[in-house]
Amino acid sequence: MPTASPKTPNLYQVQGRQLHVTYSTTGIDGKPHFTYQDRHQTLSFDGDAIRTLDTEIGTLVTVSLVRTVDTGSTSFTLVVPHVNLGQAAQAPITTQGITTLHRLSPVPFLNEGQTEISTIVRLAGTASAVNF
User: pTM higher than 0.85, yes or no?
Assistant: First the structure.
């Protein structure tokens, strides 16, 4: 009996604690898309503004929420779990989102010690295979 090849999602929609995230690995334009929405802002990213890293725990998908020249930045990373949809069009998922404050001071001696502070939020939603 032949085994079916894994069906991988290309759209992830998750939410938790007043945070909504949508990530598509590709879109109608062939680029990945990422939307981050919290209670204060909605930010959209595409193409090279989205960084991915495949790991054993899933794909880490990172965007820069705030960038400054000399005082650090804030990034958000979505942990995209490995999902095999089988014959289904979508599956429920749970995962984490990590907001990281990257501290940087123009005064060199203030850059000692821990320079990243992260907050983790639990997210739940769906992973889907869609045609763009």
Answer: yes
CA angle 116, 118, 120 (to 5 degrees): 165
∠ CA 13-47-10, nearest 5°, is 35
The sign one gets for the Cα dihedral 57, 125, 22, 99 is: negative
Residue pair 72/64 in contact by the 8 Å Cβ criterion: no
Looking at domain 11-128, which CATH architecture does it have? Answer: Beta Barrel (2.40)
Q: What pLDDT, in 10s, does the model give residues 65-111?
A: 988 767 789 999 999 999 999 999 999 999 999 999 987 777 777 77
3-state secondary structure of 7: coil
Q: How far is CA 94 from CA 10, 16, 88, 91, in A?
A: 16, 10, 17, 10
**What residues does each domain of the chain span?**
11-128
Comparing C-alpha atoms, which of 102, 109, 78 is closest to residue 13? 78
Vertex 99, ends 16 and 57: CA angle to 5°?
A: 80
Using alpha carbons, select from 19, 32, 92 the residue that is nearest to residue 59. Answer: 32
